[in-house]
Amino acid sequence: MRLTRLLHLARNRRPVRRFRDRLVEPDMLEAVLEAARYAPSAHEGQPWRFVVVQEALTRHTLAAAAFNHPHVRTAPVVIVCCARIHSHVSGTGRPSFAGDLAAAAQTMVLTAADLGLDSSWIYGFRESGVRSAIGVPGHVPVVALLCLGYHDGLSDLPERRAREEVIGWDRWGANRKTAP
Length: 180
Ligand SMILES: Cc1cc2nc3c(=O)[nH]c(=O)nc-3n(C[C@H](O)[C@H](O)[C@H](O)COP(=O)(O)O)c2cc1C
Known about the structure:
Layout: H1 5-12, H2 26-37, E1 48-53, H3 56-65, H4 70-74, E2 77-83, H5 97-114, E3 118-122, H6 127-134, E4 142-149, H7 163-166
Antiparallel strand pairs: 1-2, 2-4, 3-4
Helix pairs in contact: 2-5, 3-6
The protein binds flavin mononucleotide (FMN).
C-alpha cells in the first residue's frame, strides 16, 4: 500500500471530545469552505448550502437543538450543512443530496485536518430547532452540523474493522485471490 500525506491524515484523525476557546482564523475557515465547493456531486448538482455560525447566541441556540452536545456547545464555528432537496435524483428515483452533502462534509473534515484544525460531524439534532435558529426555509433539509475548531482533548483512534470485513474483491465478501 502506498502511504500518502492524505492517507496519513485520514488514518490519524482522532475524534474530538470538546473544543478549546480559540477562534478559527478567517483564512482557514475560507479554505475549508472553498474545499466543500469543490466536492463531487451527482450530475454536478452542487446541492449544498452552508450557513456558517460563529455568533455566540446562535451557537447556543444550535447547541440546544442538538441536545446540548458538548461539541456544538464549545465549537467556535458550526457549519450547518443544508441541501436543495430536489437537487438531483438518480435514475432510480433516489435523491442524491445526502450523498452529495456527505462528500462536501468529509472534504471539509480532511481539509480542516490538513490545516491543523479539528472537526466533528453531528447528526443528532432537532431539525426544526436548527431551522428556526438560523432561518432555514421549511423545504430545505438540514443534513448535518459540522463543528470546527481546536480540540481541548481527543479520544483514542477508533478501532477500525478489518480490511477483509469491509472490502470484497469482485464478489460480495470475497477475499482477494493473490496477495497485494
Ligand atoms: C454522518 C455522521 C454523523 C455523526 N453524528 C454524530 C452525532 O450526532 N453525535 C456525535 O457525537 N458524533 C457524531 N458523529 C461523529 C462520529 O461518532 C465520529 O465520526 C466517530 O466518533 C469517529 O470520530 P472521527 O470521525 O473523528 O474519527 C457523526 C459522524 C458521522 C460521519
